[in-house]
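Why do we care about 3D structure at all? Because function follows from shape, and shape follows, mostly, from sequence. That is the central idea of this module. The next example makes it concrete: a single protein chain, its amino acid sequence, and then its structure expressed as tokens.
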Amino acid sequence: MANNKTGLNYYNVDTDRYMDIRIRRLVKNHGCRGLAVYDYLLCEVYRVQGCFAVWDESTPFNVAEYLGLKESNVSEIVRYCGAVGLFDKELLSRGIITSASIQRRYLEMCSRAKRRIIHIPEICRIVPEQSDIIPEQSQIIPEVCGKRKKERNISTTTTAREDSDNSEDSVKDISPTPEKGCAEKAPPAPLPDGTVEYVPIAEVAAWMKAQTQWIEALCMNNHLDPEFVTRKIDEFAAHCADNGETAKEKRDCMRHFNNWLRKIRQPAPDVVVRSRCTTGGSRHPSATFDNNQHYEKF
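And the structure:
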């Protein structure tokens, strides 16, 4: 049935994929045939099971027949894909074609398609189980401080926050606000397998200061002084630590800092009114703060 479909009708492809050293090695050693075999198997992975494909005796025959190659050449190319890391080498030796990037992309696509059931078999699972959580699903959130437990559907809240944020990769905090006098729960730990690039919260300030290109663009677009931005980066890192964060994703560092800086520089309402009256309708400098700093390329 359509609702129970496991595979995908299409999948996303990174535009810089040919800059990947693994792809470059594949093309260098096996030419365009190697790339064709790799692309064919990716389509089979996403089309049938969504997150993996079975590598058995019939698979190299199917690929070879379609591309007009020898089965031995197909097997050699697939083994090389496992050697350079395009496929998981250990799982490939057990007859399973998959990788961490394949499974992450599968989960992202299913989430965007609003599938309520996403399952990666335990035998081939690489990414952590936390990635299976879909924001659109309803969750049961208990009320604390002795109040009566209730079931609260937070899918509407999540959707509203997603609509208000133009960033596709933004992190949604849908946890309930702790009641006064109640202890806050510790935030979830960052993913331990390195599949997503996280920066420990103690190193966030140093890492952001090292992104000189981003800082220069931020100062140029908003007429800011680099020393001012450097000081605010330290304050931002302290703000994140005070909020109990243990780590931040690299791309989120830029986006969250932009939003935080825009909020703290937002003028009071009476200041805006006086500014408009005395300057003939000119806007306060912070009202033109450019929040689109192209942080995704970092």
